[in-house]
Amino acid sequence: MAQLQQLLGGVLQAWSSGDGHRLSAAFILPLRPHPLPADVRNAQSNGHDLDALAAGVLEGQAGGDFVETVGAYLQALSALAQGSWERVFAQLHRAFDAYSKTLQGAQDPDFVAFLLPTLKVLARHLNLAATRADAGAEGFKSLRKAENTLKNCFTDMLKDRSGARKPVLLCIAAQLFQVYSRMSNIPFAKTLVNTLKRPTTLQGVQQVKADIITYNYHCGRLFVFEDQFQEAESYLGSAFEGCHKDAVGNKRRILAYLVPVRILLGRMPTDRLLDKYGLPHFKGICRGIRTGNLRLFEQALADNQELFIRQGNFLILERTRKLCYRTLFRNLQKAAGYGPENTRVRLGDCEAAFRWMNCDSEPEQIECILANLIHKGIIKGYIAHAQVSSCTCPHRQGRAVAQLSMYSPLPQCCLSLFLSFSPFLSFCPFLFVSCRDCSC
Amino acid sequence: GDDDDDDDDDDDDDDEPRPPPSLRVTGLDQAEMRLGGVSEAREPQRPTLSQTTGVPRGKVRARNDSFEGEADPDTAGLKGFVARVPQVQPQRTGTTAEDARRERFAKKAQPVLRSRAPMRAPVAIASENESESDEATSTGGIVGRCMEMCPPKEVVKREEMREIDLFERPYEGDDPRGARNPHHVEPCPGYPVKKYQRSAADHKLNKPDEVRPPHVLLETEDYLERYVIEQDKVQGDSRFVRSRGEKTAADLLEDVYMFYWNRNRMIRKDLLLQNFTGGGLTHTLAMTILERSARCLILFEHLLSGSEEFRRTHQQQNQKQLNETLTACMSQYSNARSLYDKAVVTGTVHHMIQNRPTGGSEDYWFNLDAKGVVSEFEPELTAYYIVFHIENRITVTYFLKELTSKVRRHVNVQEALLAFAALHSQDWAKYCSVIRRTSNIILRCLLSTSRLMKRVREVALDALNVTQSLPIAGIVEWLLFEDEEECVACCVKYGLQPAQTEAGALVLNGTRPRENAFTLPSDPPIPRPLRRFIRIERRYHLVKAGTHERMPVTLSNGRAQPDSLPPEEGPVRPVSASSRALSSRSGTPIGEFVGSQAADQAADQAAEQAAEQ
């Protein structure tokens, strides 16, 4: 009972002190082993009614809704001691509902500001409990319920004309983002983003930095899925810069998306950055892209496939492959002696380069890659099947040449990296391989 | 003649009651059923055909002792007891034409009812039957007790309503083994199969006597795959003679499909009624049924996608059903996994496994323990799921996170991943090469569905526009067109005009200057199904792609079957070093896992070969 009494006393004190953060601290669910849940559980099994207990302590001090919140929270603690996340979720849901009512009834802006931190804590735990409750079960019963509640809460806060409740918007939005992403429904969050983007929504509202960062991170991920890399980069970038320097885990999470997006936009990460945050799995990819070493690139992708799939950035990394191709072609053009006078590259040479890199070297593969690169403006040039009529050779790749003129620069600033001559080319065997089977 | 509206099973999950967690499974030895009919299919006599069909045990069992029935002496002797199975006699009330018809139908039903003796004596069950059924209904769940492919009540009712399908009329030809047709397809014996029904206020479906338990459902699916899906190839079948005159082979195929589709849907509905779909129950046979259904639906979609009629009326429905089937299958897998994982966490897994009945509903415990997969075919079906949702990158991205590394490393899943990445990075050549190289023909069918091929070709033609004098013959090969005609028609639709060279070859001239701009037409051409790359022998490939049951290696006429089938590879093309390495990999049988080691070896081999050259 000691722990329980301490908790209730703390709540009472915090409630009368007017310190919102102190109050919110009382509602943090102890996830690590802690005597509190067991204590609450004992009290319940000894015949104490937890709701009545809460009412007894807070009677006369706080409104009925808040008393219900505390009662439900105690029930949740008891359920936690039993290890039943379904019941934890049900009770937290009740607590959240009751607390929302308390908040709705509040008029004084100072009182609203006092209540907000606890709402954030409850929202976070609601999300967490829903996730745990749905783990291993079919469908997303709890998550759907949590989504509904949080969405309603979001709308209520948005409608507030006084603006006193708006500081909580970003936090609720971030929680909703998480719920959606757990239900594999991230596009649903698009409406949130559109609402929050409107200049009037958050005008003049003081935000907590942590909320902004979390929100930006989720927003950036959403734009990654929508292929809007510029937008994604700006959101993720600001999240990364704003993130506290000691929150290495969070920084790594942001970098898992930020690095591939920046690579796609043409900014390679430095090795120092990757070392600092322990991201060695990007090293092979970056090195492969810098040097055009397709083999290294493929190897890095294949070795870390599981990790990338878990991080959810597998597909964007696959899409950075075209940059690797670009460097490879560029190096090929230099190494095989093509110059400003002689810009025609034989597709046979390209094929040899790919074969040397252990890659699919079917003629259409090469042509597909080149055509795509030219089509997207990554390389300038065209492909010509020049001597089709006069050639009797069955191997088409011998005949086709690609007229590759100047490489168009990548969108951003790292050109010097791409222009650097990579060391492996000095041993390049395909220097001497010209048109393989064909005399034309 | 089926209704195609969309408002189907969605509401069923809610109003169907949940059964008790443990399912009582009676009847056949399930391992035998699961591994299917090697021995059964080899049996020479007609009655064995019906071994794959049901036995009337549901209603009759309780009164079993008072019946004198006939039993197939062979089977009964084999199993070492004299079974008593009732012989259903049609009621003779008059001599009208209606009665004659009824009798004919009953006759047809008769071999089903009579031919296969139950393999376990039903007497023991009979005594406790009543109480158990009461219990089942009182707890609100149902356990199917209909031991036939079609409940006897429905047989009578459908006879009255004259709703008997062509495929449910008895075979009256003289050659039951079908030696006359070149495909060795046995003619359909024509047993009644439960027809698809909707639940309504006045038509409740959850009656235990009319719902088939999983092992009977599996028998039914097996029957459909064995005796129905290739019936359009049987020639001289008197049932179809008249219709053959008016109908083309394609029409007949559609008939076969409609029959299969309808009956298969009811099979899955029965699973749903017993809470195997969406109800949270896990059953190995339910997985098997869903796996097999998914394969058939994919195959039929491919076979029929050339038909305008199918595309207009049924394609969407088919895809919806396929989606439901695949989703149900995935949730069966994940349920099984979470059960197993929970047992691992609590440390009771060995205890659980020791107490499982072998060869039955809970085989997935053994599979997970021994092989790390829920079912032998889990990776294969996972690959189908990925490819089915390949365009929706968020769904796939989140789905992939859930995969275990064992499943992810499987060759089919890797192929699906390759195709997924290729599609979203506009690498059309790689996408087409996955179609060409995968040894799983059903994956090929799924990858080449018309909407995907359309998308790939659009991207490819747009990109290829940077190429000058590109021979049409090349494009035909690269983009898997059926012939030059289709390719040219497609190019013209997209605003690319092929030109003729001096030598007579058709070429595409690129956009320099931009006179041939690529444009998206309002009515894009619909790709033809890839017949050149995908040659299907339906039953054979259903079996080959994931061998639930082994098809008979030799047929009754002594000819080996697999050899007589066409090789399933595409046209022969010059193979480069790395693709040779890859193709040798893709030749590994399905079910074998390609680990990173094997991939390394293949890569090394390719590197060596390249170095030699």
From TrEMBL, chain A:
Pfam families: PCI. InterPro entries: Csn12-like, PCI_dom, WH-like_DNA-bd_sf. Residues 211-397 form the PCI domain. It comes from the Eukaryota. GO terms for cellular component: transcription export complex 2. PANTHER family: PCI DOMAIN-CONTAINING PROTEIN 2, UNCHARACTERIZED PROTEASOME COMPONENT REGION PCI-CONTAINING. This is PCI domain-containing protein.
From TrEMBL, chain B:
One of its GO terms (cellular component) is transcription export complex 2. GO terms for biological process: mRNA export from nucleus. Residues 149-337, 369-497 form the SAC3/GANP/THP3 conserved domain. Coiled coil: none annotated. Residues 576-586, 597-613 have a biased composition (Low complexity). Residues 1-112, 551-613 are annotated as: Disordered. Residues 1-16 have a biased composition (Acidic residues). This is SAC3/GANP/THP3 conserved domain-containing protein. The lineage of its organism: Eukaryota, Sar, Stramenopiles, Ochrophyta, Pinguiophyceae.
